[in-house]
Amino acid sequence: MLRITDDGVGGITAQTPYTPEAVSAALGGLPVKATKIYFEDIAVPALEATRDGKRVLLAFRHPAGTRVVWARVYAPDSVTSTGVAVGMLMSRIYDHLPNLQCRNGLKQQSGLVFCPAPGLGNVRFAFRCNYATPDDSLPPASVLARCPLASITWIADE
């Protein structure tokens, strides 16, 4: 299980060197390899941790830095320090929908809704809604309520 707090993910913190070995050690020995993630035509280097052949986490560094500055967690057994887990429905996390601090994903991120994590300053959520809107407006509350949490992002204080 990976625990996500304002300080990091598992053993990954803002002090963790951006190397496969350091990230693997911080994650209890999970296999980690260097990869590239594409945002439109831009290749972004990342470190990918896997478990049983499935992506668990992507770690990123600041372009000018040598340490991990943010990580996106996909593992279904991941949970925040406030008790939110990957797979939970948006209606179980937020009291009122739509949450006006959320934003709809555009272009490559279409189908996702991004929101701040309640009670955490350095954590963000991405919900899989698969609902197209004509602009960047959020889907209706009835749709949002059924959107599962697809990933949890931790961002280091800089």
SSE layout and pairing:
Elements: E1 3-5, E2 8-9, H1 20-26, E3 32-39, E4 42-51, E5 54-61, E6 68-73, E7 79-80, H2 90-93, E8 103-104, E9 112-116, E10 123-128, H3 141-144, E11 149-155
Parallel strand pairs: 1-7
Antiparallel strand pairs: 1-2, 3-4, 4-5, 5-6, 6-11, 8-9, 9-10, 10-11
Description:
Helix content is 9%, strand content 37%. The mean pLDDT is 92. It is globular, with a radius of gyration of 16 Å. The chain contains three helices and eleven strands. The protein has a single domain, classed as protein yfey like domain (protein yfey like fold, Sandwich). The protein is mainly beta and 158 residues long.
How is the main sheet built?
8 strands, antiparallel
Q: Indicate the CATH class.
A: Mainly Beta
Strand arrangement in the largest pleated sheet: 3-4-5-6-11-10-9-8
Strand content: 35-45%
Spans of at least 5 consecutive residues whose pLDDT stays below 50 are none
Number of strands: 11
**Tell me, what's the shape?**
globular
Please provide a brief summary of the model.
With 158 residues, the protein is mainly beta.
Which tags fit this structure?
158 residues; mainly beta; protein yfey like fold; 9% helix; globular
